[in-house]
């Protein structure tokens, strides 16, 4: 791995101080410049892409990536807004799906197993790039008189009532296609239960983030 590490160090030095969107030399250019095999350069580039430091653009090359988005475990993915009213993520409503609650989901949203549920899904966007797919599931009997974007705006004003569970999955199928990432690229999966105002309805929320575009933080118990 010595040659791969050397190429990564060379690229990191080359990228230092460069603005997001700056193009880096192609694999062929780097191989010629450094006198090494293109396969070695490709492996180094793939590591930097996975780390969120380089962004590939089909047909155009590799570019310095934008800084990672930051979100906090105790806050909704879509908010809260800052003093200017700007939220950390924009979003697009994807679809709504019907289902039934298994034992674990039923316990989380405090209904009987087998009860009919509705899943609201949205795509989170940061700096015009897709960064996560989020699902919010609740019992059909508790759905408020609102849907789509209005539902998620309401959810973002709610509060988290459970600890967050964090795991890692590999992107495939719809996640790879919608998030515009290669199959098997890591996803950070955050699961928790939130209260939907004004009735304090429990909602199970599952957010699958692109690991290369996000930084998760936990606030200290003493404040921000």
Automatic annotation (TrEMBL):
GO terms for molecular function: DNA binding; DNA-binding transcription factor activity. Residues 1-67 form the HTH gntR-type domain. SMART domains: HTH_GNTR, UTRA. Keywords: DNA-binding, Transcription, Transcription regulation. It comes from the Bacteria. The keyword Transcription regulation applies. The keyword Aminoacyl-tRNA synthetase does not apply. It holds the Pfam family UTRA. InterPro entries: Bact_HTH_transcr_reg, Chorismate_lyase_/UTRA_dom_sf, Tscrpt_reg_HTH_GntR, UTRA, WH-like_DNA-bd_sf, WH_DNA-bd_sf. GO terms for biological process: negative regulation of DNA-templated transcription. This is GntR family transcriptional regulator.
């Amino acid at each position: 791995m010595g040659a791969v590490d050397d190429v990564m160090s060379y690229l990191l030095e080359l990228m230092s101080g460069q603005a997001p969107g700056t193009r880096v030399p192609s694999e062929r250019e780097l191989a010629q410049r450094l006198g090494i095999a293109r396969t070695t350069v490709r492996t180094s580039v793939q590591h930097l892409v996975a780390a969120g430091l380089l962004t590939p653009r089909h047909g155009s090359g590799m570019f310095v990536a934008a800084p990672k988005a930051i979100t906090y475990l105790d806050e909704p993915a879509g908010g809260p807004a800052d003093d200017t009213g700007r939220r950390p993520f924009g979003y697009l409503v994807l679809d709504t799906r019907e289902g039934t609650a298994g034992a674990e989901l039923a316990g989380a949203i405090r209904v009987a197993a087998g009860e009919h549920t509705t899943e609201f899904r949205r795509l989170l966007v940061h700096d015009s790039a897709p960064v996560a797919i989020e699902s919010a599931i609740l019992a059909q009997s508790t759905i408020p008189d609102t849907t789509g974007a209005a539902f998620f705006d309401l959810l973002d004003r709610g509060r988290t009532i459970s600890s967050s569970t964090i795991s890692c999955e590999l992107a495939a199928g719809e996640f790879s296609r919608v998030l515009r990432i290669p199959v098997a690229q890591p996803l950070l999966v955050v699961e928790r239960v939130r209260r939907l105002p004004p009735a304090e309805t429990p909602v199970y929320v599952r957010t699958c983030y692109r690991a290369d575009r996000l930084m998760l933080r936990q606030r200290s118990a003493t404040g921000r």
